[in-house]
Amino acid sequence: MAEHKQKSSLPVYLLTGIFLLILCVAVSIGVLITPYEKAQTYLNIVFMDQNMKIAPSSGLNGLVIKENEIETTPVSDIPGEQQKFYENGEIIRPAFGEQYAVLKCDDISLDVPVYWGSTSELLERGACQASSSVVLGETGNVVIDAHVNTFFADLNRLEPGNTVVLYTNYGIFTYQVSEKIQFLNTNKKYVLPTEEDRLTLYTCEAQVLGTSDNRTGVICTLVSKQFYNPAEEANS
Amino acid sequence: MTKIRRYFPKILLTFLLIFLLIGTELSLLVQHNFLTYKAFETVTNQQNLDEKAYSALESYFKSRANSTGIPAEVYLNAVTQEDMKQGILSSVSEAFDYLHHDVKTYAFTMDFTTLEASVTEFFNQYADKNGYQKDEVFQQKVQANIEEAEAKILYTADTFKFGTIAEHGWLTKLRKFLDIFKKIMTVLCICTGVILILLILCCKGNFSELLYWLGLTGVISGLLISVPCLYLLRTDYFSGFVVKDMQIFSAVTGYLTYLTKTTGLTSLVIAFLGAVSLNLFGLIQKIKNKKQTTAE
């Protein structure tokens, strides 16, 4: 009789446990759903890097720096070799932190790698192109800056008429210095997008011990675009 | 019918006890673990925040040397990793002094005597070497440089961002909340005790049944908390934190992981105790049945 009683009460105990568990889960969800929905936007912002969980290390703050081998001696300059260039061609878009060009100016012995994006880590490695400006080859303002105590120490020696060449893995872009500029770091006039092809190079004004709010640089106009591959090929 | 009438209050009391136990557990954890200096000290040590903060400073001053021409050593020789650790812990203790009404305002600072001497010495040496006139402009430059460096060091040492929290008035809100929180915690503890006593009274004369209800309470409340905690830890959710400054990232994710692990572990212990209680209930029932069968 007692065994029968025990057998009959066992499912009751089990079902009670399951019932309570389901009830508590349902109540918890019911109570928390509204606050969660309210907090969801903030949570999505604060923990937005769910697809790129890079724990920052070595002070790069999640930045992935990529160095590229960029040929600065065009094949056409090599005796016996011929390189065909195109005026319109395929542009290879760089990733943030990627070295995608080499800036050369023989007049002031300038030879600097150019990185896409501007951060203190990249500025230690070379010149940086603002990611808000256009990629070399596109029409608009190409804005490049570097530190005055390192790569752009001699930038103020550039004079109108000097030639500046930018080499990338998809083409060569030649500019000529047209104007020397000076502006306050709060003045965005020279770094804003333009309709015409332009290269803006700038750095801090050299100052004894301390940073300066003044910027100096040059504006260059486009002389030639030489793409390695035609645009049609890229599209196909 | 009588059985259901007896059974229903126990279900209701267990249901209430589950949520009260969760509330009591969480409030006790917050009061005696999460919002204590010790918890932040543990995270600081676990995450090597002093090393990361110092590394961030090194990176900043080295990068800054490119535009200012002032060697990073001028600053870095005057601030050590140990200083950064003291700074981090000092920012935490200042915050808790404020939260516990020991001070009226949150004001975190560090001793910069060595730094000031180092920067001044460098500027003087530079001026002497290059024949730079030590006029008012020069003194202003020295002062501006010292102030800028001090601000940067304080910002870097404040890895848990108490400064920013205080700046936006959240520390004051937290202080007010903590005052109320103590009362809430007391109410929760009393309520849990009352419900527990009521449950004991309901199960009067049947200890094994009491074990069953307590076991259910422990298992369900433990699972309700530990499962989300395990999910957060398993998916490494906090690593998606958007601020990638090494020392801030480690401080925030380290602290959140510490909270989640401690909560999850405590809940698992409660769930385990619940499971033990349920097993005891089963065992007692079995022994009882055996005795009754033997008697018959």
Could you characterize what this model shows?
The complex is a heterodimer of chains A (236) and B (296). By secondary structure, chain A is of the alpha+beta class. Chain A has 2 domains: 1-53; 75-235, Sortase, Chain: A, CATH 2.40.260. Helix content of chain A is 24%, strand content 26%. Chain A has helices spanning 2-46, 120-125, 231-235, and strands at residues 99-105, 110-116, 127-129, 141-145, 163-167, 171-184, 198-204, 214-227. An 8-stranded mixed barrel of chain A has the order 1-2-3-4-7-8-6-5. In chain A, strand 2, helix 2 and strand 3 form a beta-alpha-beta unit. The longest helix of chain A has 45 residues, at 2-46. The relative contact order of chain A is 0.14. The model of chain A has no long low-confidence stretch (mean pLDDT 84). By secondary structure, chain B is mostly helical. Chain B has 2 domains: 2-34 and 187-295, no CATH class; 50-168, no CATH class. The longest helix of chain B is centred in the C-terminal third of the chain and has 50 residues, at 246-295. The chains are: A alpha+beta (236), B mainly alpha (296). At the A-B interface, helix 1 and helix 2 of A face helix 1, helix 3, helix 6, helix 7 and helix 10 of B.
Give the secondary structure arrangement, pairings included.
The complex is a heterodimer of chains A (236) and B (296).
Chain A: H1 2-46, E1 99-105, E2 110-116, H2 120-125, E3 127-129, E4 141-145, E5 163-167, E6 171-184, E7 198-204, E8 214-227, H3 231-235
Parallel strand pairs in A: 2-3, 4-7
Antiparallel strand pairs in A: 1-2, 1-5, 3-4, 5-6, 6-8, 7-8
Chain B: H1 2-34, H2 37-46, H3 49-68, H4 73-76, H5 81-99, H6 113-130, H7 136-157, H8 162-167, H9 170-202, H10 207-234, H11 246-295
Helix pairs in contact in B: 1-9, 1-10, 1-11, 2-5, 2-11, 3-5, 3-7, 3-11, 5-7, 6-7, 10-11
